[in-house]
TrEMBL record, chain A:
<dbReference type="GO" id="GO:0051536">
    <property type="term" value="F:iron-sulfur cluster binding"/>
</dbReference>
<dbReference type="InterPro" id="IPR036010">
    <property type="entry name" value="2Fe-2S_ferredoxin-like_sf"/>
</dbReference>
<protein>
    <submittedName>
        <fullName>2Fe-2S iron-sulfur cluster binding domain-containing protein</fullName>
    </submittedName>
</protein>
<keyword id="KW-0560">Oxidoreductase</keyword>
<dbReference type="Pfam" id="PF13510">
    <property type="entry name" value="Fer2_4"/>
</dbReference>
<dbReference type="InterPro" id="IPR042204">
    <property type="entry name" value="2Fe-2S-bd_N"/>
</dbReference>
<dbReference type="GO" id="GO:0016491">
    <property type="term" value="F:oxidoreductase activity"/>
</dbReference>
From TrEMBL, chain B:
<feature type="domain" description="FAD/NAD(P)-binding">
    <location>
        <begin position="3"/>
        <end position="335"/>
    </location>
</feature>
<dbReference type="Pfam" id="PF07992">
    <property type="entry name" value="Pyr_redox_2"/>
</dbReference>
<dbReference type="InterPro" id="IPR017224">
    <property type="entry name" value="Opine_Oxase_asu/HCN_bsu"/>
</dbReference>
<keyword id="KW-0560">Oxidoreductase</keyword>
<dbReference type="InterPro" id="IPR041854">
    <property type="entry name" value="BFD-like_2Fe2S-bd_dom_sf"/>
</dbReference>
<dbReference type="InterPro" id="IPR023753">
    <property type="entry name" value="FAD/NAD-binding_dom"/>
</dbReference>
<dbReference type="InterPro" id="IPR036188">
    <property type="entry name" value="FAD/NAD-bd_sf"/>
</dbReference>
<feature type="region of interest" description="Disordered">
    <location>
        <begin position="468"/>
        <end position="494"/>
    </location>
</feature>
<dbReference type="InterPro" id="IPR051691">
    <property type="entry name" value="Metab_Enz_Cyan_OpOx_G3PDH"/>
</dbReference>
Amino acid sequence: MTARLLPFSDDPIRPSSPASVSIQFDGAPIEGVSGQSIAGVILASGPLGFRRTSVSGKSRGVFCGIGVCFDCLVEVNGDRDVRACQRRAVDGDVVVTQHDALPGSIA
Amino acid sequence: MSSVLILGAGPAGLAAARAARRRGASVTLVDSSEQLGGQFWRHLPAERPAARERILHHGWDTFRALQAQLVADDGCRILTSASVFAIDATASPSTTGTGPGRVHVIVGPSDGTGRERIELLPDAIVLATGAHDRTLPFPGWDLPGVFTGGAAQALAKGERLAVGAHVVVAGAGPFLLPVAASLAATGSRVLGVFESSRLSSLVRGWLPRPWQLLPAAKKGAELAGYIGGQLKSRIPYTTGASVIAAHGTDRVESVTVASLDKNWTPVAGTERTLAVDAVCVSHGFTPRLELAIAAGCQITDERFVAVDDAQATSVPGVYAAGEITGIGGVDLALAEGALAGHAAAGGNPFDLPGEVRKRRIYEGFARRIEAAHGIRPGWPDMVTDDTIVCRCEEVSFGALCSTAESTASTSLRSLKLTTRAGLGICQGRVCGRSLEQLIARRLPGNTLGDTVSTDRRPIAVPLRLGELAAAARPTDPSPTTPTPLADPPKGPTS
Ligand SMILES: Cc1cc2nc3c(=O)[nH]c(=O)nc-3n(C[C@H](O)[C@H](O)[C@H](O)COP(=O)(O)OP(=O)(O)OC[C@H]3O[C@@H](n4cnc5c(N)ncnc54)[C@H](O)[C@@H]3O)c2cc1C
Ligand code: FES
């Protein structure tokens, strides 16, 4: 078990039934709930780490959740370096993970 | 009629907007988020209505009232998804000749392309940019699954997402309690809350003047509520202990928890390991000072924006409120915001004695929090040579030390340039203050050879080059204000 969206039927705040949103993540379709951030949709679909760092190739994902740390960068519809925690998922978004090579190395 | 620009729509900014409107100013309220409410009232998006969302929040009715009033008011223009990236204090003053400068804003989806740039020239500015979590570095804190407390809180309140199934909450401060409570209310099992400060310093911090607690009873009750809630859901709360390492390869699998002495140095032999799939760590908050610095405001020795009784900063026409003037929680932010908005619109603090009183009460509360939970000097003992200290540039503590030694450098500026620590894309927001302390600790007298502040960031949010090159929309006219917002009914202010 890992990060997960609380099923709306179990939620004590009694939400109405939510609409879904579906995006492409590294080529595979994943589903979330309308209004979620791209980071939230990715986390709830399984991976905690979804970027590799340039120096040591380590895995990173969400850290601060509020747009401060820039650890959650992804490519969205061709735009690189988008903070996944700050960008709302829109149906059909094409999200690709970033594995930045150091300048000068061969990607 | 004056125009007041409010930067940040958290509790402080919302209270400021309402107070300025009550005095008849024309108000523009700007926030980079898509929603109003700031960090405290982060909530579900409009398309996810919930009958009982209020149970996730304190002061939810206060928020709903502020929001409804401002949204319905023609004299308040609200710009969301709008990030202030610079303040040009040297720009020509506004029409009335008192303006504090030109404020540059970019409007559109975060980190998008082709967003719209606008420039504002208000008569007065209220800075209410709040704070973000401060997490001290420890081995493994860069693993996926290690979150700040704020991240867990934001995902729980804003999306109903639990960051893990088996979670530990650690660090310092009363904020750990709402984080644990939110996690529990979102379906996580919280294995424990570990508060670095020892019970004795908590007692010293909270109890030297117990009578001061009486007027702040509301806040006391809120904390008691959290503790009560924890007991109900059986979350153990341990003082004088914290997470000192996280383990795993591509994600966190376990954490080491150890006792800390009164300086927060881990006590050898007390370590134990807990299996987790997430850990949330916060050691307090760092105020977001970059816009205040850009506006030329004086910063205090404790590194908050310096303000007087009217919440006025050292720069004429610039006011500040909320966490950027001191960490004190929502009630202090609301009182300061009301006073700042009122003063920015030409009022005097004596007009609002109720807010002045609240500010005094909650300032006392803030001082107790700092006394009880403030970061202690032994924390670097958690840091090993392999510990990443700058996450963006992946600089380890060992690399930082060996560079300092080989260059005999005592200046933060030169160490940053040689190691790149603090120069990554987060602009030192996450590591800056910890780097300063780690380097200073190795030097005689615990002081750096220079006074470069890691809080200075001329461009506050990243822009795309194309956006920077594109022309900004000429300064928008302020909203016209038909009538001031009605005053509150007589009696205690809301
Ligand atoms: C993630 C997080 C969660 C928190 N949750 C709680 C909690 O549950 N309980 C509690 O007691 N305290 C909590 N706190 C502490 C909290 O900071 C205060 O209680 C309260 O929110 C402070 O109010 P404020 O108005 O000063 O700032 P904030 O609420 O932080 O509001 C500041 C606003 O300014 C905006 N802003 C900042 N920079 C810019 C810019 N350049 N351009 C445009 N907009 C900008 C931000 O988007 C934000 O909305 C939390 C803090 C954080 C960081
Ligand atoms: S998680 Fe920190 S910026 Fe997105």
